[in-house]
Amino acid sequence: MSSTVPDLAALHALGAAQQPTYPDADAVAANVARLRTMPPLVFAGECDDLKAKMAAVSRGEAFLLQGGDCAETFAEVTADNVRNKLRVLLQMAVILTYAGSVPVVKLGRLAGQYAKPRSSDMETRDGVTLPAYRGDAVNGFDFTPESRIPDPTRLLDVYNASAATLNLVRAFVTGGYADLRQVHTWNTDFVRTSVAGQRYEALAGEIDKALGFMDAIGVDADELKRVDFHSSHEALLLEYEHAMTRIDSRTEKPYNVSGHFVWIGERTRQLDGAHVEYFRHIANPIGCKLGPSASADDAIALAEKLNPDNEEGRLTFITRFGAGKIRDGLPHLVEKVTAAGIKVAWVCDPMHGNTFESSTGYKTRRFDDVIDEVQGFFDVHRALGTWPGGVLVEMTGDDVTECIGGGEEIDEAGLAHRYESVVDPRLNRVQSLELAFLVAEMLRATTA
């Protein structure tokens, strides 16, 4: 790993994929220069702590729960929204830890997930063609010429929104909200009356009894009062990520200080591309998405370039095949990578391969397909004797109706009730808890 990261011009010369076309290069330079002076959002030591946890995941000693919005928006940076997302992740982690009997690494898909790759640079509606919405980091969602022009001042807005989100998360996890004795208070409002909520309430009662026993014998562990919670996002916009790269004074290594864990997307994992070149220089724990087009040789070549020292906890492969393809596509990948001696954590993204358009015109996913892909992921690893390291889910803490199915039996007509995502559909809070119980059962079967 080099002590310097190539400059932006050198990265762009490699043909950086999925970057916005800004109309004013001077404005871009000015905003990037300002970002370079801003304090870090996360610290190198925190990234190292997460890397150690990811090393445990890669060894089969822990399980990763990664979740949050498909695309964050500036308007949703409120205390209620941040708390709601954190609350459901805490509930899911409790379910996985208690019912799955394995330590759970908690990683939010938040405080930086403001940019999204798109299949086309342009979007046409009713004969009008404008730049595609690439997330609040780039342009606005409203379909107007003014809104859709890429605006580099939004890069500073991303920093400020991420700082506010992280500040809230840190306050919640250190201020008592994440105390395991709060396990009942996390199960509020519409969730409590659902089947998943009732099942959670029963589990919370068991935890209460266990905590009462520990109190009775004088055990007062700090681990019960707080949680380690880290942030992650797809490091897509090179201007932002490069500007948020700093040299750590302890190690003299470059870290991306915009998030603890950053990943390369399926559309930007070109071996000779700008994103892989950037990522191979930073010391954070990193991920790389692998879809159906990825061969085992592709994965091995990426591992050799991104993690040449084969360091535990450094690299995570996040697979996104789709429920219908994972059982055929994943085994050869895992088998060949494992045979090559590559140290990597395997994580399942059961969301992106299962998206379709409903008859009512909404981009959606079936809950059953999401679960089937996770089950396929576990089945493949069980057959190969390897460890299913975790799941990455797009979810929210709210009562949205964006994915079909689950215990609430949301149908295609019901999507219109409360569809709020600006890009991809998310599991709502009840569906997220249902998923956690089902994954916990898969984990229990794996560790039995």
Automatic annotation (TrEMBL):
<keyword id="KW-0808">Transferase</keyword>
<dbReference type="Pfam" id="PF01474">
    <property type="entry name" value="DAHP_synth_2"/>
</dbReference>
<dbReference type="InterPro" id="IPR002480">
    <property type="entry name" value="DAHP_synth_2"/>
</dbReference>
<dbReference type="GO" id="GO:0003849">
    <property type="term" value="F:3-deoxy-7-phosphoheptulonate synthase activity"/>
</dbReference>
<dbReference type="InterPro" id="IPR013785">
    <property type="entry name" value="Aldolase_TIM"/>
</dbReference>
<comment type="similarity">
    <text>Belongs to the class-II DAHP synthase family.</text>
</comment>
<keyword id="KW-0057">Aromatic amino acid biosynthesis</keyword>
<protein>
    <recommendedName>
        <fullName>Phospho-2-dehydro-3-deoxyheptonate aldolase</fullName>
        <ecNumber>2.5.1.54</ecNumber>
    </recommendedName>
</protein>
<keyword id="KW-0028">Amino-acid biosynthesis</keyword>
<comment type="pathway">
    <text>Metabolic intermediate biosynthesis; chorismate biosynthesis; chorismate from D-erythrose 4-phosphate and phosphoenolpyruvate: step 1/7.</text>
</comment>
